[in-house]
UniProtKB/TrEMBL annotation:
<dbReference type="InterPro" id="IPR052654">
    <property type="entry name" value="CS_Sulfotransferase"/>
</dbReference>
<dbReference type="GO" id="GO:0050659">
    <property type="term" value="F:N-acetylgalactosamine 4-sulfate 6-O-sulfotransferase activity"/>
</dbReference>
<keyword id="KW-0808">Transferase</keyword>
<dbReference type="InterPro" id="IPR000863">
    <property type="entry name" value="Sulfotransferase_dom"/>
</dbReference>
<dbReference type="Pfam" id="PF00685">
    <property type="entry name" value="Sulfotransfer_1"/>
</dbReference>
<dbReference type="GO" id="GO:0019319">
    <property type="term" value="P:hexose biosynthetic process"/>
</dbReference>
<protein>
    <recommendedName>
        <fullName>Sulfotransferase</fullName>
        <ecNumber>2.8.2.-</ecNumber>
    </recommendedName>
</protein>
<comment type="similarity">
    <text>Belongs to the sulfotransferase 1 family.</text>
</comment>
<feature type="domain" description="Sulfotransferase">
    <location>
        <begin position="30"/>
        <end position="156"/>
    </location>
</feature>
<dbReference type="InterPro" id="IPR027417">
    <property type="entry name" value="P-loop_NTPase"/>
</dbReference>
Length: 210
């Protein structure tokens, strides 16, 4: 949903930094009746997991905090001169940021997709819900796709499948991010999460800690 880095290869700088067409426009041109399934994770936790997965050395909560601080500063500097959408899709900025802050701005991407596809063509799920109840999530997926229900045996096999992209054993000892880093990221993502929850009419997508 968020990976649109190739747009700059096809358009010049006459768009004020905002892409005139994105991946969804091309998909819609070929498959206008597509059904789209999206699974989203709390963007704060997603960013830390992303850092642990892709960083190759010197990983630590301290290093993550420094990279988050640098990325936020770069993004804020961009926003001084350009629109939100221009900054989100700015390949140079995204490549310069030491962590992929922009990936968690789900509302920006979803709203762009909703300019070409209807909301009824989307099933948006939360990773947290899937992790806690795989059976229910898969029931929703099959229902959304108008497929027949799974048998108990098929569902049992599916729910026992190991998770992919799980945290590596050597990364588990690093512990969580610092509380101060978590608060900074929660503040940054809060308005985007609130917008996402509003668009989806589901307050669970605000990821508000209780």
């Amino acid at each position: 949903m968020w990976d649109n880095n190739a747009w700059t290869f096809f358009y010049d700088n006459s768009t004020d930094g905002e892409p005139p067409f994105l991946t969804q426009d091309f998909i819609h041109a070929f498959q206008p009746d597509a059904k789209l399934i999206v699974m989203l994770r709390d963007p704060v936790e997603r960013l830390y997991s992303d850092y642990l997965y892709f960083a190759s050395s010197n990983k630590s909560a301290d290093d993550f905090h420094e990279k988050v601080t640098e990325a936020l500063q770069l993004f804020e500097n961009c926003m001084l001169d350009y629109s939100l959408r221009a900054c989100v899709y700015n390949n140079s900025l995204n490549n310069a940021m030491p962590v992929r802050l922009q990936v968690g701005l789900y509302a920006v991407y979803l709203l762009d997709w909703l300019t070409v596809f209807s909301k009824e063509q989307f099933l948006v799920l939360r990773l947290e819900d899937h992790a806690s109840n795989v059976s229910y999530t898969m029931h929703r997926v099959f229902q959304f796709l108008s497929l027949g229900p799974l048998s108990e045996k098929q569902m049992a096999l599916m729910t026992k499948s190991p998770a992919s992209n799980a945290r590596r054993p050597e990364d588990r000892n690093l512990g969580p991010m610092w509380p101060v880093t978590q608060r900074i990221l929660q503040d940054f993502y809060r308005p985007f999460n609130a917008k996402l929850a509003q668009v989806l009419a589901d307050k669970a997508f605000a990821w508000r800690k209780t």
